[in-house]
Amino acid sequence: MMSAGPEAPCGFDHVEAWVFDLDNTLYPADCNLFAQIDRRMGEFIAQELGLNLDEAQALRQAYYYEHGTTLAGLVRMHGVSPDAFLDYVHDIDLSAVAAAPELAAALDALPGRKFVFTNGSRKHAERVVERLGVLGRFEAIFDIHALEYVHPKPTHEAYRRFMQACRVTPAEGAMFDDLPHNLKTAHELGMTTVLVHGLTEHPEHQAIASWTGLPAHIHHRTDALAPFLGAIAASLVKRSDSVQTVPHNAQYCLT
User: Fold this and answer.
1) What number of other Cβ atoms are within 10 A of residue 79's Cβ?
2) Residue 248 has pLDDT above 90, yes or no
3) Less packed terminus of the chain by CB within 10 Å, N or C?
4) What's the alpha-carbon Rg for the chain, to the nearest Å?
5) Gap between the Cα atoms of 247 and 159, Å rounded
6) Rounded to an integer, what distance in angstroms lies between the CA atom of residue 78 and that of residue 214?
């Protein structure tokens, strides 16, 4: 595990709320669900706006970068029905997502509350976490509906709404996400940040592959979420068991 430097938090003993992005974070990126989602977004845009597929895919990418999500751009610029869009693009084959008993065990072992915070829909999130076998582990799924479709991560408004609705204090929260730009806002608000890295064709994923260290807004990085969470849980248990024998000013790092 790489660390951002001396200012990065050393451990996770302060964390009360564990907050997870959904896609390419809770499940491995090599499931490649976004290849299906991207294709269906292009199809929906083509049908809705009367474009050919190449034009639709170009607009999909442009709105993603200009508005934070393709959906936000379609709602703002064209008044597209969010529910119609989400129902269509998330009607995908989830057979690549396998049950993850190690992830379930790690989530169970972590003290505190757990949340899913996603720019996708609740329906999509529930289908995915059910496939993973971790549906009952989360206190809430905070989705794009709760963000009124036009305030997606990484906007400060998205995080403000999430924290207010779920009663999360930033300094007591840890945010896990596969996209560095989503973690930047979390860091600015005072959360501990963890990059869950998996390689896809997304430009940010491609850029991460060439990193030699972590930017200041990312405190930890892992390529395997379940073992990482398991190590955190084990470290917290060990620390709790030995707290009476440890000097008051001791510091710990998860390695």
Assistant:
1) 7
2) no
3) C
4) 19
5) 36
6) 39
Question: Is 3 a residue whose pLDDT tops 70?
Answer: no
CATH annotation of 17-31+98-245: 3.40.50.1000
Give the span between the Cα atoms of 46 and 59, in whole angstroms: 10
Strands 173-177, 17-20: parallel, antiparallel or unpaired by DSSP?
Answer: parallel
| Confidence grade of residue 237 (pLDDT, cut at 50, 70, 90) | confident
The domain made up of 33-89 has a fold known as DNA polymerase; domain 1 (1.10.150)
Split at pLDDT 50, 70, 90, the class of 244 is very low
Residues 164-175 have pLDDT tens digits of: 999 999 999 999
Per-residue tokens: 47: 């049908």
Which tokens in the block code for residue 19? 């907050």
How confident is the model at residue 55, as a pLDDT? 98
The structural domains of the chain, with segments of one domain joined by +, span 17-31+98-245, 33-89
Phi/psi for 102 (5° steps) reads -65, -40
- Which parts of the chain fold into alpha helices (H)? 33-49, 53-67, 70-78, 82-89, 101-109, 122-132, 156-166, 180-189, 203-208, 225-242
